[in-house]
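Pilot study result, target chain (268 residues):
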Amino acid sequence: MIDFDNIDEWSPSLTEVLRELLPDDLEDRLSELAPEYIEDAVGILFDIADKDAIIDATLSWVQSSQIVAYHGTRLTDHEVQSVRQCGLVPLVAEARHERLQRALSAHPRWSEVADKLEAAIRTHGAGEFAGCREGQVHLTLSRAGLVGGFNHYLTHGSEFDQHVAVALLGGDGKELLRRDGRPRLIRAAVPGEEAIAATHPFGTPDDMRARGDMPNMIREILESWSYRQSKPEFQSRSLKKDCGLFFCSSVPADWIIDIELLPELADL
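Predicted structure:
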């Protein structure tokens, strides 16, 4: 199982996979060149080894494993049980009515906007203002990124809910979402092939390689691994990476490893 933030655990495994493709003095050469930036290290790696072979081997390594991915949200205890039983289901805009009414009805102006809730849900579900989230589930590669880089899902819940709340009640609406449910960090083990596909929702790894780019997730892994060879103290969690996994179907309950209750977090 590959947990991106725990490079101490996965780096030795990837090293073994790549060993035959690398020069024996790789670490010395990387240390001597002392890359300042993380992307410089992988550039040096590709200068002294076969880029395509390294990407092929890394892609196969990921696809044959499981990738740990994270989802942040706010849930009541009852909703936690639903996730444990049903997994993470794609957004159905109309199904957000209960949570939004529960959270926003505490506002003193609720009676003035209550009859606009359904229209706001339909509008934002169609993506007219917030980008269409209907029928989607989103995970991300880095726990550190989700908690310490873009934690608004944990502080206020669903991005869809946030857009609707702000449309109806401005900043007050968003603040009311903070009072509903508790911050939960959902950790899932995603089969490698499905994880790779989920990081390429609008194309394929081959499409990216044809443009001269590394596939998503493979880039993050190889950049971190190669930088680690020159700086053994480097920790991938320090990057707080935002590498998203996009699903158009449920994340099954049997993928979910745990649902962690977090303390309340300050806005970033």
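One observation from the pilot: The CA atoms of residues 197 and 204 lie 7 Å apart. A full batch analysis is planned for the follow-on phase.
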